[in-house]
Design goal:
The protein has helices at residues 3-16, 23-27, 35-126, 131-139, 143-152, 158-261, 271-283, 301-310, 320-325, and strands at residues 328-330, 340-344, 352-360, 363-366, 375-378, 387-390. By secondary structure, the protein is α+β, with helices and mostly antiparallel strands. The chain folds into two domains: 1-261, Orthogonal Bundle (Helix Hairpins), CATH 1.10.287; 273-390, endopeptidase domain like (from Nostoc punctiforme) (endopeptidase fold (from Nostoc punctiforme), Alpha-Beta Complex). A six-stranded antiparallel beta sheet has the order 1-6-2-3-4-5. Helix 4 runs antiparallel to helix 5 (143-152) and helix 7 (271-283) packs across helix 8 (301-310). It is rod-shaped and about 175 Å long. It comes from Streptacidiphilus pinicola.
Length: 391
């Protein structure tokens, strides 16, 4: 059985048993943290838990987005790598076709030079009628035109004509391939630049997402620490209130037993005597507390009550526990002005350490402690009194 259960069980026993619980003890509360304080601490712990749960949800979403962004970056990097390979291949092909085009141009020029040489030789042998045909052949850049010019050039060997035709066609094809390769290389470079920009954008977004995850993770750590503190405070207050309830229940049981066993209240003292007792106590207000003091310039707690009751013709010892022993026990309900109230450090008459004079309306006059003065105070200033008595 925990403390809270024990406390509630004890109070239930009192009520079910029909014992009258002193009103002061019931109204004064158990002490320790209040119900509101415990509830507030528990609410704070729940709120801290809700904040942790909310951030955990945000963190999970951010981590999921980070994972997706990481895949996007990896894809962009691989796309960039592929584009670089394609660009390098296109550049290599363009370089090769450029070399081939230059070689074809050189071969074509050599073929033309050979035909020109042959034409010159035939001119020297055959005279001017062949010169125009050779001139047309040498001026032709198109394979078909070159063929016509070659046919017109009588005396040019078939072998020379075919060689020139082949060289011209090869050079034209090489120039076309070179132009296409350069265009492909330019397109590959542009594609690589575009993919590189996409890769950079993905990497920047990943970095931003990673920063968000780090910030949420740090916030999560801070909130977890706050949650642990809030839960600890709530637990401590809950346990403290349970202990206070258990202690109150024990006091209620003791007070109920005391009430059940207490003898009938003694007759009330004569009003004139009580007026003298209270008047004396009030006349001492403001005088300093001195241990062992019994007036007229200073008092301790039992010295003040002893001198006050002397004004009613009652002699009490200068010792709080003996003053209780020499008086008639009362309950809170039986208290009247002039009666004595006592506090005990262990709840027993032998443990009484302080006495004060009851003045009515839950007020007392007391000589409290060294450094203080005789003064009025609440009956509950030191907690619920343990004993009440009438000299």
């Amino acid at each position: 059985m925990n403390r809270r259960t024990a406390a509630l069980a004890a109070v239930t026993v009192l009520l079910m048993g029909g014992l009258a619980v002193p009103e002061a003890a019931a109204d004064n509360g158990p002490g320790g943290p209040s119900v509101g304080e415990v509830a507030a601490a528990q609410a704070a712990a729940r709120a801290a838990g809700a904040r942790v749960t909310a951030v955990e949800g945000q963190l999970a979403l951010a981590q999921s987005a980070e994972a997706a962004m990481d895949v996007r970056v990896e894809t962009a990097v691989e796309a960039y790598n592929g584009a670089m390979v394609a660009q390098q291949r296109a550049a290599a092909k363009a370089a090769a076709t450029s070399v081939a085009a230059r070689g074809a141009d050189t071969a074509e020029r050599a073929a033309r030079d050979a035909v020109g040489q042959l034409a010159a030789e035939q001119y020297s042998d055959g005279g001017p009628p062949l010169l125009a045909g050779f001139a047309g052949l040498l001026a032709a850049r198109d394979p078909h035109a070159a063929e016509l010019a070659a046919e017109a050039a009588q005396g040019v060997s078939e072998q020379a004509r075919q060689a020139l035709q082949q060289a011209a066609a090869t050079a034209a094809a090489a120039r076309g391939a070179d132009a296409a390769a350069r265009q492909a290389s330019t397109a590959a470079a542009a594609a690589t630049a575009k993919v590189a920009a996409a890769r950079t954008d993905a990497q920047q977004q990943l970095a931003a997402q990673q920063a968000q995850v780090a910030a949420l993770d740090a916030q999560h750590t801070t909130l977890l620490s706050g949650l642990a503190s809030a839960q600890q405070v709530a637990l401590q207050l809950t346990e403290a209130r349970a202990q206070a309830l258990a202690a109150q229940a024990a006091r209620l049981v003791a007070l109920a037993k005391q009430q059940a066993s207490a003898p009938p209240a003694p007759p009330a003292p004569r009003p004139g005597d009580i007026r003298n007792v209270l008047a004396f106590a009030r006349s001492a207000l403001g005088l300093p507390y001195v241990w062992g003091g019994a007036g007229p310039q200073n008092y301790d707690c039992s010295g003040l009550t002893m001198r006050a009751w002397q004004r009613a013709g009652v002699e009490l010892p200068h010792f709080a526990a003996d003053q209780y022993a020499d008086s008639h026990p009362l309950t809170y309900r039986q208290l009247q002005p002039g009666d004595l109230v006592f506090w005990s450090h262990d709840g027993s008459p032998q443990g009484i350490y302080h006495v004060a004079l009851y003045t009515g309306d839950d007020s007392i006059i007391e000589a409290p402690r060294t450094g203080d003065v005789v003064k009025t105070a609440s009956l509950w200033i030191m907690g619920t009194p343990d004993f009440y008595a009438r000299p």
